[in-house]
Amino acid sequence: MSNVTRFGAVGDGVEDDTESIQHAVNEGDGMLHFPPGTYRITRSIEVRLVKRGPLGIDGTGGTARVVMAGAGPAFRLTGTHGGTGDPGSRQGNVSSHQRLPTIRNIEVEGAHAEADGFELIGTMQSIFEGVLVTSCRHGIHLIKRNRNVLISHCHIYFNTGVGVYLDSVNLHQINIANCHISYNRLGGIRLERSEVRNLQITGNDIEYNNHKSHKTEPEPTAEIYIDTNAEGASVNEVTIASNTIQATDSPGGSNIRIRENPDASRPPGLFAISGNVIGSQENNVHLSGCYGIALSGNTIYSCKHRNLLIEDSRLVNVSGNTFRRHTPDYGTGVRITGSENITFTGCGIHDETDTGQPGLFALLELAHCQRISITGSQFIDGVIGVAATDCAHVTLTGNTLHDTRSVPVAKHAVQFTGTSMGHLVANNTISKTSGDPIAGDAQANGNVIAAQ
């Protein structure tokens, strides 16, 4: 192995080891080995895979630390792969020299305001495992073009930018699994200005990624932030599953935010968001301009504004989710606006206050929507269970809309206002309310009005 100390690195945290480590990269055998110690560098270690050949970086079971005291990434890995994941698209020496750059068991700490952890350009089959990046700007920064990236068992912790940042990158096939991504000021996992396919985010703890621990002014952010508003950007084929995604609320913040121009030719779609615990932000899940999203089997709790906010979206299936509050300072509720072809099935929403939440009009609010199907769900202790304004073809069947408080405060179970047409309210069980249980213009059949 290319032991960096044999190339002159001291590893005492004081001496500048940049030249020695770069020498080891250029002249060594490709296995860059860091014995226990702290290695201070002042400029990026450049790894040009087309010349270097296969590369591995090893930090001796996590006992080695690299302190980046200059601007830029501590390690920049640059390849030439311009193809896809298809084996036939590999050109030059990609398959022999550039494949599988592997970084394991090492810490990178930033000691400069513009220090980053790792930057990848044009790589193929990169692997990060057991890596800690802290006190940098961005943790792992993917730009331009990369393929088949694996990030697992890593700690991306307390950085001033983004934990894992897909920034103006064309990237297919990236798995982020079993990581702890937290306290990063501008988001845990963030995609902007990028074209991405096959993004898998599974089994991670992604939390507190906003300004609060950094004591700076707030900026809109999210634990998982996917923004495809830029020209040419698109993100499709995404799984977000079995994660804990939680935070402290921040202005304009969300746990999961997916944004797109609703007029875009290819809005975010082919998403499955399932089996996560999601909580404690301004809006827990915020979908804007999306098409073809399945949101199922999640526990979504404690919002300042909404557990789920859907805007200007189509074909979103919301099923089997639990919406609730966790602490008295937070609330619960769902709002859907400007959207069509939405199903809301088998979900439960519970207010859990004695008087109703201030500023919460209804547990499920619909505005300027059409073809919304609400079935088999429970709306418990809302001032209004479901409220629809200027909507068409809203169907509520087989739901439970009850006020279980000792002193009921519900005004209506279901309310339609504004321009309405084609609504059906059938076979629901509804508790008595202070006003009409079903208010507004709708065809009502077979509903049971219960005393409590």
Q: What can you tell me about this protein's structure?
A:
The chain is mainly beta. The chain has a domain at 342-452. Helix content is 4%, strand content 52%. It is built from 3 helices and 45 strands. It has a 45-stranded parallel β-sheet that branches. The longest helix has 10 residues, at 18-27. It starts with a strand and ends with a strand. 50% of the residues are buried.
Quick take:
The protein has 3 helices and 45 strands. The chain has 452 residues and is mainly β. The chain has a 45-stranded parallel β-sheet that branches.
Largest sheet: 45 strands, parallel
Shape call: elongated
Quote the beta fraction.
over 45%
Q: Averaging pLDDT over every residue, what do you get?
A: 94
Number of helices: 3
Query: Structural class of the helices, strands and pairings?
Result: mainly beta
- Number-wise, the strands total 45
Report the uncertain regions. none
Approximately how much helix is present in the residues?
Answer: under 10%
Rg value: 26 Å
Oligomer: single chain
Span of the ends, CA to CA: 74 Å
